[in-house]
Amino acid sequence: MGALHAVAEVRAEAMPDGWRHWLDFERILEGEANPRFPSDAETLERDQGRYLGFVRVTARRTEGEGLDLYDPALGVKVGADR
Q: Is residue 5 within a helix (H) or strand (E), and if so which, with residue range?
């Protein structure tokens, strides 16, 4: 794993028509000979983007060190575990 960096200016937003992109992807997967998972297409069509869709998250990397979220001792480091 490479160097870990802290981030600033984190922004998250729902992508306009993100659910349509997801639906297109599901329709492509439905055409596969042996799909691994059941399709979400029907659910996406019924929802029409009210609750389901894609979210875009952006951030600016800073010079500071970040946290290794895979570190088993992270709970102790941040005071959540003893």
A: strand 5-14
